[in-house]
Design a protein that fits this description.
It is built from eight helices and three strands, in the order H-H-H-H-H-E-E-E-H-H-H. By secondary structure, it is mainly alpha-helical. The protein has a single domain, classed as 3-Layer(bab) Sandwich (minor pseudopilin epsh fold). Strand 1 and strand 2 form a beta hairpin. Helix 1 runs antiparallel to helix 3.
Length: 203
Amino acid sequence: MFSVPALPYGYDALEPIIDQQTMQIHHDKHHQAYVDKLNAALEKYPELAQKTIEEILVDFENVPADIQVAVRNHGGGHANHSLFWTVLAPVGQGGQASGDLSTAITSTFGSYKSFQEQFQAAAAGQFGSGWAWLVLDGDSLKITATPNQDSPLLQAQTPLFGVDVWEHAYYLHYQNKRPDYVTAIWRIVNWTEVERRYVAAHS
């Protein structure tokens, strides 16, 4: 069955951008709850638990109808958070995109700054809970936003980078100032991991 992956850094490693208490609650409580409910939904269909969560979501139309809502919500929550932890890094290790990904961002969005502005607009404009994403749609980079815990995988898109804009991801530190949280998070983006995902998606 599925389990919550360990963080690749300490709970306090992303301070002051994301505080230790938020990380502990977010990882240990919220992500764990998604995994627990996903596993409960899959108990009747153990063959699905032999697949990765990405494989399940990509083939969502073949998920049994009686557990589709649970898999969409909790499976999406598991996939989204598993990616989220890896695309963040302690302050000072972020920088900017480089290599092929940097070239693709500039070609698609005009500049790195323009990409940031468009991404921040998508994150700030997502009504209610959800995510903002940089995805690969076919061979094209796109910025998207999804509600709740919907994964871009449901739309046959490959998520490269995502920012959780559920209130539990930022409210202890930023309260209702979601744009401040999204602006600050650029300081802790793990571009090495994002570029690795981009290259892997092309291989």
